[in-house]
Amino acid sequence: MADKKPQSDTNALLTDFDKYLLGEGTHERAYEKLGAHLVELNDEKGVHFAVWAPNAQRVYLVGDFNNWDAGSHPMNSSDSGVWTLFVPGLEEYAVYKFHVVAQNGDSFDKADPYGFAMEQRPKTASVVTNLDSYQWEDGEWVNQRAERQAFNKPISIYEVHLGSWRKVPDEQWGSRYLTYRELADELIPYVVEMGYTHIELMPIAEYPLDASWGYQVLGFYAPTSRFGTSQDLMYFVDQCHQNSIGVILDWVPAHFPKDGAGLNYFDGTHLYAHADPRQGEHQDWGTLIFNYSRNEVRAFLISNALFWIDKYHFDGLRVDAVASMLYLDYSREEGEWLPNEYGGRENLGAISFLRKMNEVVHGYFPGVLTIAEESTAWPMVSRPPYMGGLGFSLKWNMGWMHDTLKYMGKEPIYRKYHQNDMTFSLLYAFNENFILPLSHDEVVHGKGSLINKMSGDEWQKFAGLRAYYGFMWGHPGKKLMFMGGEFAQWQEWNFSASLEWAALKAPNHQGIQRFVKDLNRLYQNEPALYEDDFEWTGFTWVDANDSDNSVFSFIRNAKASDEFVVVISSFTPVVRYGYRIGVPKWGYYREILNSDSNHYWGSNVGNEGGVETDAIPCHGYDQSLSLTLPPLATIMLKLTAQ
């Protein structure tokens, strides 16, 4: 850095209008003004710093450029509560914090809430970073995003924890993470080969504790340095788009940790949270809840949502723990929460914030997906705010996941008593725009892996899981699967270890991986399986009530044509010959999928490629098929000739 004293701030970057919008909570790109920005002022290049700390007595800039001396770089205050400073000669990669002096005289060093990069853990300082130097080459994808991610398109998501998808040997540590650029070289080809349409990244905003999996965020505007630089992450997303893969970011606006360098007690007050722990703290998680009614906090979070889409070209945000935001009594006993102004348990500030966030995101970036992880019966989560909804594009169908996994854990002899676990979701399947999630949450904390949730011996477990996946891909709703599920990893997920890739030496694991690959290919090639996911017109039960045989049969209908696919799932380990189901048209029905194929490590029972209809009425249709149902299997059939 040049040997110059800090220059008095002229507010050249932060206008009165900016301050007004921040105070009003409507500054939707606050990251362009707050934080650290490489600029030229008065013919001098340097860095302009701005931080919101309205209750601080004083704020100083400290860093590696001034030997962390709090007295050398005092910042300038304003009526808006924003402190600013321009430091001429300062360059990219300078490491810094804000030294805040509270009104009571306490002082502490804070990372920049709007900092674009941070040091690697356990260090917590912010790093001056230029986000505009990367040259994007994904224009074609971005221009087609709205069409590619429309509701009538296939969406099959591969959920990934970057730190444990795959590790490589390391002399010092034994193994290490793949970098963003290495992941571009290895993860993207794998996802393309497996036929997924999207990758969903578990949280990658900087977090200090590995064991939080990214859900306790310290740097909301800084991608974690564990895997490389900001430009490295941009390269990863760019390469995804150039390979026709969308990228969804797991976004965490529900809470933040108590770490000293973070948002907690930022200016000596509960600036970002509530002072009363009955409003401001998640006792279960040991984290703090954002004050969604405070305008500057709303600007911080709404800007953050836009930031990841604007600067990193993410195609969607999966919003974590929405239920915890909506309910004031979430995971609280009587007396541990405060009702809203009308005496209810709804968090009115959070509701308003979520609606505004969705309006702003969809307004700036049409076609971007916002996805709610919402586990209750809150109405109209995926309906527009003007209709009274929250405005999300999609919602995770947690009820479907819980019910169907419970069913698959039953011994086949008892499944006939639990038929409704598999059919109940169709009573509400079209109330929301649903994603069917088999996420990381189902394979941790002693819940076991997906393969170990299946009942029976080894053969039955693998057959059952294939049948279940076939049922899932046939069921209305977009699809999501957590890494490792596609090859039936035996052990539950361990964030500190690589997936069990060695399992793929065994034919049973190879078979289920091939099945998922073929499922994804079939799914993308058959419009009936994805075009009409959110209306009754896309689904017809053939027979939902054959509980004695534990068989489910239904039809998926295309929207833009008269094509349809017949789906039959049999969840007992016996072969059923001459099983008759009604179909809407006469002709030859080709078997386009059979999870019992020996190609997938099945017993190879099937229908020899297809079946002709009989003029025998069944299930309300004039025509019917006499089928051989394989054991513990899902088959799909399509009319190919009349």
Structure, described:
With 642 residues, this protein is α/β, with parallel strands linked by helices. Among the domains are: 16-127, Sandwich (Immunoglobulin-like); 536-641, Golgi alpha-mannosidase II (Immunoglobulin-like). An eight-stranded parallel β-barrel has the order 8-11-14-17-18-19-20-21, surrounded by four helices. A six-stranded antiparallel beta sheet has the order 22-23-24-29-26-27. Strands 3, 5, 6 and 7 form a four-stranded antiparallel beta sheet that branches. A hairpin with a 2-residue loop joins strand 1 and strand 2. Helix 6 (295-312) packs parallel to helix 8 (348-364) and helix 12 (458-474) runs parallel beside helix 13.
